Amino acid sequence: MEIVKKILLPMMKRLYFAAGMLFLSLNVFSQIEPPWIQDTSFVRELYIIRNKFKSLSFTGYLQIEYQHAASPGIECYNGGNFQPSSDSRFMIRRGRFRLDYEGKTREGFNSYYFALQYDGTEKGVNIRDMFGRIYENKWNYFVITTGMFNRPFGYELNYSSSLRESPERGRMSQILMKTERDLGVMLSFEPQDQTSKIYPLKLDAGIFNGQGLSGSCEFDSFKDFIARALLRRIKLNNSTYISGGVSYLDGGFINKSGIFYRTIRDSNGKFTFQRDSSWLNIGEKSPRKYYGADLQIIFDNPFGRTELRGELITGIQSATYSTSVTPGALPLNSARQYDSIFVRNFSGGYFYFIHTFGVKHQLVLKYDWYDPNSRAGKTEITEPGNFGPADIRFDTWGAGYIWHLNDNLKIMLYYEHPVNEKTNIPGFTEDIRDDTITARLQFRF
Q1: CATH number of domain containing 346
Q2: 154/264 Cα distance (integer angstroms)
Q3: How far apart are CA 235 and CA 310, in angstroms?
């Protein structure tokens, strides 16, 4: 009997507790959506588990996929580059677990909000979100957000990976804002009363470190200012909905090398990179300025629901000779010295066509492009002009099918065909064989 009391009874208590938690996870569900994300597809909002005070919730999802590439070792924006000898792979693309805690006023308006999210894959575990929000409750108009959270720029950057109809964000989004989150503070005009005439209007303005999750810490004193004006989804008529916004970013990072390269016209009227190596450049800002606009339109029709989605971004990007990706740390060259900074005018964007039919099935067509140096044409991109692979334009065509087996399980099949400019740069005189096929299974709760 003593053995039963000391060993079996405690074990039985633990089993009862675990069974109770499992029961809750399977039966006590309600649906929420992160405050700054609007689901513009038919997909239902993520299920959550709430405690008896209806303030604590847990959500999560797991994406397991198989990919096949047209050739081994390709550079890939669908989950990272392939290894030199590999043209196929299994991978855990995302394994997310998120905790949300919220407080509300007696009238039902948000008062405060806290979120913590982790991402685990076969490569390790990292944080994704860690932020808090404080709501103003006199007029219920204003919100302050601080911590690690999504940059308030554009639509695709803020659209949840669990809901997105393509495996990844476009090449442009991944290059300009590698890892879409950053550490900072943001003030928002975000009316909570849905009966108010100004409810559809939302304004965000924030200051951020700049390197986001791609770097271990802030490495200079320059900050990014990001602002966005958004019209939340409104109903135009019985079958048409529309939403959209405009975005702006003004930021940059320190130039420790003192060397800038900028695109100018030479005496022959062609564009080339000109070197500026003045010592006065040391410590100057390497500029980043982005201007964006996005629009989403939904049509309900006899054949289901059709959505058109588009976004355009243009501006100035600073990086290095070898890449146009926003650096997460001070750029160093192969000699471990501070690298020269290349300032480029860029343009990019994407368009989605999404049709939902039979409630559970979706067909997706996507086109996106990123031109890292919009001033120089393909015939001008040569090594004598100091151009390299980082200046080459890519146009990417994609098509996919999504089957939602139920509210917690979906299958995605997606084909992607990138097309690069044919230039005089070695390795890019012809189109690279870098197509990919992705088969993904997603679980969520």
Answers
A1: 2.40.160.10
A2: 29
A3: 18
Instruction: Give pLDDT tens digits for 303-342.
Output: 999 999 999 999 999 999 999 999 999 999 999 999 999 9
Q: Quote the DSSP letter at residue 359.
A: T
The neighbour count for residue 390, using CB atoms within 10 Å, is 19
The residue range of the domain holding 265 is 47-444
pLDDT tens for each residue of 8-61? 444 444 444 444 443 444 343 333 344 434 443 333 444 444 444 468 889 999
Average pLDDT, the chain: 89
**How long a stretch of residues is the chain?**
445
Q: Under a CB-based contact definition with an 8 Å cutoff, are residues 395 and 347 in contact?
A: no
Q: Is residue 78 part of a domain?
A: yes
Per the domain annotation, does 28 fall within a domain? no
Rounded to two decimals, the pTM is 0.86
Query: Position of tokens 């929420």?
Result: 32
Give the count of domains, the chain. Answer: 1
259-302: pLDDT as tens digits? 999 999 888 888 899 999 999 999 999 999 999 999 999 999 99
Cβ atoms within 10 Å, residue 207:
15
For residue 178, what are its two tokens? 């590698």
The neighbour count for residue 163, using CB atoms within 10 Å, is 20
Residue 399 lies in a domain: yes
Distances (CA, A) of 303 to 361, 362, 427: 12, 12, 45
DSSP 8-state secondary structure symbol assigned to residue 161: T
SS3 390: helix
Residue 225 predicted with pLDDT over 90: yes
Sign, CA torsion 444/160/194/99: positive
Burial letters 410-421, b for 16+ CB under 10 A, else e: bebebebebebb
**Which CA distances in Å does 96 have to 127, 344, 412, 434?**
9, 35, 18, 28
The dihedral region occupied by 147, where left means phi > 0, alpha psi between -120 and 50, and beta the remainder, is left
